[in-house]
Amino acid sequence: MAEHDGSVAAAIRAALMIAEPRDKALATRAVARDFAAGRLSFRFDVAMPDRPARPAEPVLLAPTAMPRRGRGGSERGRIALLHAIAHIEFVAIDLALDMAGRFGGGRGAEFVSDWLSVAADEAMHFALVERRLRTLGSRYGALPAHDGLWDAAMDTAHDVAARLAIVPMVLEARGLDVTPVMIERFTAAGDTTSARILKRILDDEIRHVRFGTKHFAMVCDERRESPDDFWKCLVARHFRGDLKPPFNDSARQRAGLPLVSACVLAL
Ligand SMILES: [Fe+2]
Ligand SMILES: [Fe+2]
C-alpha cells in the first residue's frame, strides 16, 4: 500500500498503470488482498485510464495480421498457443481491475470484492502460463499478440450491464467452450503439465462467468429487465464477433448460463 492514497480506486488505477507483467500481477494480488483485509477505503475518487499500461513486448498486431498458429502438437505450436493464452490472461487482469474500478462505486462492496478476486485469479493464471513458457525456453513477449482484446472494454465503458453482458458472459464464457479442446491437444502431445494448468484455469473461469451472471441478474432486477432478452439485446448491440457452437453446456450450466446456447442460436 505504499504509493497510493488508501482508496480502493487509487490502488486499482495504480495496478492498471503498471506495464511490467510480473509487477502488474503482483500489484493486482496485493490490491485484492488489501481490499479483502479492509486496508483500502471504499472511495472511488480517481478515474480509470482509457488504456492500461502495456509492456514494450509483446508487439501488438491487428487480429487479421496475426501469424497462423497451426494445429499440430509440435513444441513450437504449443508455445504459440501458450503465448496466446498468456496474453489473454494478461489482458484479463486489466479487464477485471477495470470492472471493479470503473463500476464498483455504483455497485457496492460485493461487486468490488468479486471482481478483485477475479483479477487476482487472472494474475495467478498469467503467472502459471508465463512460468510454463519459460520452462519451455520461451517467455511472454517473445511472440506478437492480438490487439483486439481491450476493444470490448472500450465499447462497454459507459454501462455496467453492457460490460457484464460482453466480457464475462460472452468472452469468458467462450473460454469455457474452447479450453477443453486445448486441454485435449496438450494431453495428446504428452504435455500434461500444460494440460493441468489449463484445467485449473477452466475451473476458475466457471466462477468468473458465474460472477458475471450473478451481477447481471442484479442489474436487470433493478432496471426491471428480463435477463435473457436484455442480454441478447446488449450482445446484438455491442458484440461484433461470431457466437457459434460447440458450446460447453455443462460448464456453462455450472456458471449459471443454462439458457445461453439456446439464446445464442436464436440471435
Ligand atoms: Fe483467466
Ligand atoms: Fe477469467
Look at the helices and sheets and give the structural class.
Answer: mainly alpha
- Strand % is under 5%
Question: Can you count the helices?
Answer: 10
Task: Kindly provide the name of the CATH class.
Answer: Mainly Alpha
**What's the count of strands?**
2
Give the topology.
Layout: H1 8-16, H2 21-36, E1 60-61, H3 75-107, H4 109-135, E2 145-146, H5 151-155, H6 160-188, H7 192-223, H8 227-238, H9 249-254, H10 260-266
Parallel strand pairs: 1-2
The structure holds fe (ii) ion (2 copies).
The site of one fe (ii) ion (FE2) has 6 residues, from helix 4 and helix 7.
What does this structure look like?
The protein is mainly alpha-helical and 267 residues long. It has one domain: Ferritin, core subunit, four-helix bundle (Ferritin, Up-down Bundle), CATH 1.20.1260.10. A two-stranded parallel sheet has the order 1-2. The radius of gyration is 18 Å and the shape is globular. Bound molecules: fe (ii) ion (FE2) (2 copies). The site of one fe (ii) ion has 6 residues, from helix 3, helix 4 and helix 7.
Characteristics:
binds fe (ii) ion, Ferritin, 10 helices, 267 residues, mainly alpha, two-stranded parallel ribbon
Summarize the structure.
The protein has ten helices and two strands, in the order ααβααβαααααα. With 267 residues, it is mainly alpha-helical. It has one domain: Up-down Bundle (Ferritin), CATH 1.20.1260.10.
